[in-house]
Amino acid sequence: MGAGGPAAGPADRRRVRAIHRRLLRRYGELEPPRRTDPLEELVFTVLSQNTSDANSSRAYASLRERFPTWEALAAARPEQVAEAIRVGGLARIKAPRILRILGEIRRREGRLDLSWMRRAPDEEVRAYLSSLPGVGPKTVAVVLAFSLGRPAIPVDTHVHRVARRLGLVPPRASAEAAHRILEDLVPPELRVPLHVGLIRLGREVCASRRPRCEICPLADLCPTAPARGPSSASG
Q1: Helix, strand, coil percent values for the chain (each to nearest 5)
Q2: What does the angle CA 52 – CA 97 – CA 79 come to, to the nearest 5 degrees?
Q3: Which end is more exposed in the chain, N or C (fewer Cβ atoms within 10 Å of the end residue's Cβ)?
Q4: Same domain, 85 and 183
């Protein structure tokens, strides 16, 4: 399975495809909402950390209403930004983080614009985003997948939990290690849809405290679920 586990083989990838087919049958098309601007996606993802989708969307809408341009936002004081994004939670942490990111982009680019990423190779985008203050593997993968349409699999808390229960990553693998393992294991064309499907499963079925294994479409493929009949990796 790459870093943190044995290299992925054909049987592992067949199992991933079976999981994808089950999720597709359960939820239909597995397409994420897309925002076309990389800088917009980057800021939105910072706001989404440790909060719900609804709260992060409200925080982003409030932020852009208060600061309609990136330049106005970059010139704001941390307490002004924190007030604008308060509904999203952890505002006093996220506000200076956003301002540091914007300041670093302006220092490097001379302006607040990441549109060049649409034409850049994946590795160049990864390296640039990873070098920004406070930007980790999940945020990098979100920008690649949701803004640029690249084959990346962001590992949030739901994906991390479900992937460990399914045995796709080792039980003690960190989120950072899980990114590397899953990108090695999951075929490129399945990375974004599998991310979407695992998030839905994690929210609706494979909950942190009380997983509802009795209604899970992956129960017979899951080594941590109670036995429910013979396993079938054919999907």
Answers
A1: 60, 0, 40
A2: 90
A3: C
A4: no
- Where does residue 73 rank: exposed (0-12), middle (13-18), buried (19+ CB within 10 A)? buried
Together in a domain, 65 and 132: yes
Which structural domain range is residue 55 located in?
A: 38-147
Contact of 185 with 1, CB cutoff 8 Å: yes
Backbone angle region of 50, left / alpha / beta, with phi > 0 → left and psi within -120 to 50 → alpha: left
121 and 210 inside one domain: no
* Sequential DSSP letters for 214-225: GG-TTGGG-TTS
Domain count, the chain: 2
**Assessment of whether the complete model's pTM goes beyond 0.70:** yes
143 plus 159 within the same structural domain: no
Task: Find the CATH number of the domain harbouring 113.
Answer: 1.10.340.30
Tell me which residues are annotated as active site.
138
Same domain, 175 and 110: no
* Per-residue confidence in pLDDT tens, the chain, 235 aa: 444 455 666 788 999 999 999 999 999 989 877 767 999 999 999 999 988 889 999 999 999 999 999 999 999 999 999 999 999 999 999 999 999 999 999 999 999 999 999 999 999 999 999 999 999 999 999 999 999 999 999 999 999 999 999 999 999 999 999 999 999 999 999 999 999 999 999 999 999 999 999 999 999 999 999 875 444 444 5
